[in-house]
Amino acid sequence: MTNIQAPIGLDNRTLERLNDCFRSPCDRMPHQIAAWTGMRLSDATTLVHMLYAGGLARLYYRVFHTCVEHPVDERRFEDGKVKELPWTCPECEEDVHDLSELWYDKFILTEEPIVFEREVSGS
Length: 123
Ligand SMILES: [Zn+2]
Prior knowledge:
Layout: E1 2-5, H1 12-21, E2 27-28, H2 30-37, H3 41-53, E3 57-65, E4 73-76, E5 87-88, E6 95-96, E7 102-110, E8 114-117
Parallel strand pairs: 1-8
Antiparallel strand pairs: 2-7, 3-4, 3-7, 5-6
The chain binds zinc ion.
């Protein structure tokens, strides 16, 4: 378990929900965190990047193609979005020649429970 400083300005209820959200290690998308906690999407996205920057989570892109509604691929955040064209879609096996056919959602993967605290002891 990792204890870290909670984002500033969260009320108790939001903080409690945020801790519920990260109680078990799993993948989370910023909009899921926002929906669960009531945080704004921009704040949830900032939080996700903070966890990634702090080495507490791995960050990925889910890649979507116009061919299906579910993600067709996952890429590490470090590797960035698709840049080289043509890119072959693993789902439909078509060559993509236009980046506008692709869109992305970020998600993070945590490996251990994270507890957000107002004051982190020893810091
Ligand atoms: Zn496709």
